[in-house]
Structures are given as C-alpha cells and as structure tokens.
Task: structure prediction
Amino acid sequence: MSTNPETKSGLREFAENLRLAPRRVFETMFRSGKPSTDRSRSTFVFGNVFLHLHTVRTHRWSLRWSTTWGLGILCGASFLITLVTGVLLMFYYKPYPDVAYRSIKDIHFIVPTGQFIRNIHRWAANLMVIGVFLHMARVFYTAAYRKPREFNWLIGLGLFIVTLALSFTGYLLPWDQLAYWAITIGANIAQSPREITDALNLTDKFDIGGIQRQLLLGSDVVGEEALIRFYLLHVMILPLGLALLMAVHFWRVRKDGGLAKPADVDQRLGPQPGNTYPVFTEAPQKTYQLAAVVKGRTPAVGNGPENTVPSMPHLFYAELGVFMLTILICLGLAIWMDAPLKELANPGVPENPAKAPWYFLGLQECVSFSAFMGGIGIPMIVLIGLGLIPYLERETEGTGQWFGGPGGGRLVAGSAVFGLVMATGLEAVAIRFGWLREWYPHIPQLVITAINPGSILAAIYALYSLMMVKKFDSVRAGALALFTCFLCGYIVLTIIGTHFRGPNWHFYWSPADWPYH
Amino acid sequence: MTTQATTKRSRLDPEPISRRDFLGMGSLWAAAAALGVAMLGMSRLPRAAVLSSPSKKFRVNLPESLPEGQAFVPPGRSVALYRDADGVYAVSLVCTHLGCIVKNSSDGFECPCHGSQFTADGTVRKGPAPRALAWHKVTGSGGNYVVDEGATVPAGTKLNA
Result:
C-alpha cells in the first residue's frame, strides 16, 4: 500500500472505473459525442446505422406539409404498429381450422387487452392500405417518379402489392365465415385462368390455374394446409419481403436525391429564415477519396446545400409527429370500433352476401362479371400500366408540383368527372339491363371474358388518355388523365360493391331493402 | 495478370477481360447455375405428392319418399341428388365461377357470392359463371348409391336402377 498519489493503485482505478462505468456506457453509445450542437447532431445522423437512412441536412421543400402530407411515414408507421401488435397476437393465435377461431375468441374474451390489440392491428392494417394508396397518388400527382426515381416507383409498386397481400392473408386467419369464403374465392381467382384454357380446350395439357390454386391451398380443398400456408405468408414471408423492399425504398429515396423538387424551388421558398445556421462556414474536413474513384454523378452535384436545415431535429420532429398521429388514429379507431369476427367457418353455406374488405370490393365488383378478367386480367393491366408510367413519361415540366405538367389541375378535374361518369354509367347499364349472357344465352365464354364492364371501362379510359396525349401533345397529360380515371373508377366500383350490393350480389339502394332469408 | 497497355487508357476505363477474369466469371456463373437448379428442386416442395384432401367418393342412402324434382343434399357434401322417372342423378352445388355453394331456388340454382344463376339441369342462365354446374357419377342400386365428386359425367346422365 502506497500513500504516494503518483503511483497507481490498481484497486483504486478499478473502483473509479466502476463508478464511472454507467456514464461511460452512455457516452460510448454516441460515437461522436452527445448530439448537442448542429455539428455534432450532423455527425450523429451520419454515423448512426438507423438514422443514416436520412441525409444530414434536409431541404426546406421536403419539410413542407403539402409536399408529402407525411404519407410515406404514415405507411411505415402503420407497418411498425401492425408488426408490434401482430407479434403480440401470435402469443395466442393457433393456425389450425376451428382451433384458430377459438383462439381468436380467446383473444377477444379472456386475454387482457387482447381484443384492443387485435383492433389496433386491424385498424393499422387498414390505415396502411389507405396510406399506400394515397402515397402512390401523391407521388404520381407531384410527378415524383421521374428520373432518377423511376426504379423506386417500381419498388413502391412492389410494396403496394405486398401490402394488399398482407391484408388478404391476414383476414383469412380467424377462420370465420368471412375468412373461409375469402380463401375459397381467392383460391378460385388464382384458378381462373381456366376460364381461358377451358374455352381453348387446353386445360388437360396446361392447367396453370389449377397449379396456382393448388400451390396456394396445398390441397384441393380449403383446409388445414391452406390455413398454415396463409399463416406462413402473413407472419413470415410477406413481412420479410416488405421489410426488404422498404429498406431499398427508403435508401433510394435518399440516394436518388431526396424528395422531388420543382426546378425553381428556391424562388418558391423565399429566403431562409433568419435563425438558420449557414452550412459552409468552415472548410470541409473530409477528404473525398471516394469521389475520385466513383464514376457518375450524385444527384446533389450542381445543387448547393443551401436552403437546407439540419435533419436533426427538424426532419425527425416531423417524422415523429406523423408517427404519433398514426398511433393516435389507430388507438382512436380501435376504441371506437371492434374488429369483426363472424361465425365459425361453414363449408356448406357461404355468407350472403359474401363481401371482401372494402379495398377489394372494387375488384369483387369486376369479378362479378368475369373471374379471370376482373381477378387477374384487369389487375395485371393496371399494375403493368402503373409500372410503365415513369418509362413512358419522360418529361420534365411540373416535377415536384401538385398536378404538375401540361393540363394540370383542370385536366385532372376533367378526367375525374369523366372517370366517375363513365364508371357509374357503365355500371348502371349492367345493373339495369344485365350483361351479354342474359341477352345471348349461348354466347361463348371467351367473349364474356373479353367484353365486360370492367374491360370496357379500362378500354374507354385508355382511349380517353390517348386523346389527352394528342390534345396536349404531352405524355404526362395522358398519364394524369389515365391515373385519375382509374382512381375514380376504382372508387365508384368500391362504393357500389360496399353499399349497393346485397344478397346474391343483387343491386339494392340500401341494406334496409335486403330481403329476409 | 494485366497485359501491357498498348494505347494509353484512362484509369477509369474498364480493362479488357483477362484469362483469369474469364475463368473467375465462368466459375461464378457455374455457381449461380448450380444454385438456380437447387432452387428449382426446392420449388417442388410446396406441391405434395399426395394431397391431404378427404375422399371424394361417398355413400348415400336416398329416401324412398323423395319426390321428383326435389333435391336431397347429403349433410356435409356440396352435391344435390335427384330422382325422377329416368333415374338418379347428382348435380354439383359448387359454383363454377369462384367456388361458392349455390342454393336451390324454385327453378334452378342461385349463387350468393356473385349472382350466377343456373337452370335445374345446371346450365348457366345469368351471371359470371363460365361453365354449367357439373354432374357427378352415381353408381349403386336400390336406395344405396355411391357418388363420386371427382368424376364428372355429361349433363343428363342418369342412373336407371
């Protein structure tokens, strides 16, 4: 033992380190010190694995509410909510016919907060579907899919499909009447290419429909194999796919130059607010070795970093705000309305009417004319059309502006009216006068598959869009017209499917008119 | 090994492919092909060689008193059996549109899901159904019959026994 303070005492150092350990753990969490100044916050964002999905500074244009309405974050936030609540539901859910139904009943009636969690899960899923629709519309109407963001539009399309697939596989799991008949109908839509192969006498040689159905069900009846497959898709394959696509999607948003901005964004925004800290007050301390090796240009080249604000805190507060708003909406809806659970699945008696969730009712309306055209043909045409948008429309006018491009808002309004009128009119004809089979009972099936209200509507919209391309001498004008028309058609069909279809899929002005049965 | 450049190239230009690179690329593609074949093999997994579905044949005892034109639906099956002067026959109740179970109506069948309607012999009268309702094979005699839901017979085939 030494009394000399110069000499080191192992024990004393140990005690001192022990005392400081908690503080040091906390300090070492931050690779570049505590983020307390603009500069250290920037290094913090830059060096943090989660935060570096963001750029260090964010353009003021991106932070305006009207640029995005926070819709992308809303989608991501609702996915996180479904993820957390979904894992909680997995504590009790058992994917086996009948047992599954009882486990949902358990979740409702004996699991503390079980029903509330299931409500949140359902509402967040609904919100995600709405969010994805609106987000896609926002990106389209602000022409944000243009170069260099073309491929990210395709990734977004993938996210759209996976989101709908997650919803579909999700509402099959309770094994109630809705679930059972939804699986049956879904599996038979997968089988509907038989409509074509049957008509051409090819089914014996090439039964693609049958293969698809069997892959989905793992059997030729809807039963335990089908349920476990949908469960696997819902809790594992699709969420993993979604997470993967989301990572690429977000990363590319950043790498493709942030959000799309109008060319004259600086004039539109006006001068920086007085309290903004300027960017380059000191010489950059980085050496740009990479820049000497990597070919090609980054989207930031030629654009000054001005008119940006530090992402931390400005962008993060905005994101957090949207996230909290999303949670609030889900909680509010979950308190207000319970997730439905119908009777136990009964393979002998379908529900009447058997309705899909609201976002599929537009498709169900199409399917009620032709299974193949409504369930596979038109969705494929729509998806291919959406995917081609950024590759067929290569203009630059109006990027980053709402309804930007030739025609603008007036064209969109006109197309909306046209789309609504056409969809409503065609549906009215089909509802009032029936369709081909009622007029010509021996008409070949191929004619009905090809010519039905859904396909005619798509053709009319396409023709109208071509006219707009010619009229405005611009592909963007055609794209605006087509997208708006399809959106309106989808809305009309969804409303008809939701509110005006009753037992046997007959038309009724109100559910009060439904007959007793 | 890189060869001596004869013309001056920018250091950013790609080098012409060397033997070593060629072999490297070759083995890489071979590995990718092997992986692809393995994946193809794995993709067989979701299609079982034997399907776990219940037997499609079932025995049914048709009541003597069944009036002509009235359907007898065995419990748990989606088949309607009839008896008339020409014999016994079985009509499938599975809608050919999207697989819902059709309901007997006064003059045929109606599908609750998408509004298809069929006449009493299964012919499509209205709606999206692409084909007529299937007729199933019936064998047996007396009051006891075996219906095979897996075997379709032409419409109008009746068992006279």
Observations:
- The two ends of chain B are 88 Å apart (CA to CA).
- Chain B has one helix and nine strands.
- The beta strands of chain B are 57-61, 79-84, 87-92, 103-105, 108-110, 117-118, 124-126, 135-141, 144-153.
